[in-house]
Amino acid sequence: QKLLNSFVSNFFYKSKSQLYKQKEKLLKYESARSALYNCLIANDVGIKDEIIVSSFTCDAVTFAVKRTGAKIVYVDINDDLTMNDSEVLNAINVKTKAIIFQNTFGRLGLKKQTIDKIKAKKIFLIEDCALSIGSKIDNINLGSFGDISFFSLEVSKTITIGWGGLVKINNKLYKNKMISRYFSLRQISVFADSRRFIQLW
């Protein structure tokens, strides 16, 4: 698994895309849900907070949010599966700590204008790219719009090693907390790693 993880990571690093050029900002986790959970915990998300998410999402996202103790606030989606921008903006209140917008099947989950408005409010903006690795909009790679973005390498995704998640830090304001949390985590044992590799094949 570690060898495969390194191979996939090197694929991203060597890409000509601006999205993957900064190697030191690409963090590797055992899954996308653990990546998201640790992103939230590193940035002090807790029981008093609210997290806005798409009503069209998977349990990896909701599991990660629930583990923090924060309240999930669902918003409706449009016909193309993107989040309804008006509903997202209307759902924001003093308890809103983060917004997770989902780029479903390569579509940018929120309009650029909405993303700019959210950033102006200093709300932690997380970009879910589990279903959009390699996609672009206006020649800009998805994964470049949020404060941080996360990717899934799970077996059903575009690029897979069976398990695994990646996090890219786009906003340097979040870098120190993310790096500190990352290096405090325990590595997967060789036994568990080998078992997963065998299960994959």
Short description:
This protein has 201 residues and is of the alpha/beta class. Helices cover 34% and strands 20% of the residues. The protein has helices at residues 2-14, 32-42, 59-68, 85-91, 112-120, 175-182, 190-200, and strands at 26-29, 50-54, 71-75, 96-102, 124-128, 136-137, 140-141, 148-152, 165-169.
Explained architecture:
This protein is α/β, with parallel strands linked by helices and 201 residues long. It has 7 helices and 9 strands. The strands form 2 sheets. The chain has a 7-stranded mixed sheet with strand order 1-9-8-5-4-2-3, with helices on both faces. It has a two-stranded antiparallel ribbon with strand order 6-7. The longest helix is centred in the first third of the chain and has 13 residues, at 2-14. The radius of gyration is 16 Å and the shape is globular. The termini are close together. Mean pLDDT is 84; it is low at 15-24.
> Which ranges are low-confidence, i.e. pLDDT below 50, for 5 or more consecutive residues?
15-24
Strand order of the largest sheet: 1-9-8-5-4-2-3
SS field, number of helical segments: 7
Order of helices and strands: HEHEHEHEHEEEEEHH
Large-scale geometry? globular
Category from helices, strands and their pairing: alpha/beta
Distance between the termini: 11 Å
Number of strands: 9
Largest sheet: 7 strands, mixed
Report the β-strand fraction as a percent range.
Answer: 15-25%
In round numbers, the mean pLDDT is 84
Helix percentage range = 25-40%
Q: Measured on Cα atoms, how large is the radius of gyration?
A: 16 Å
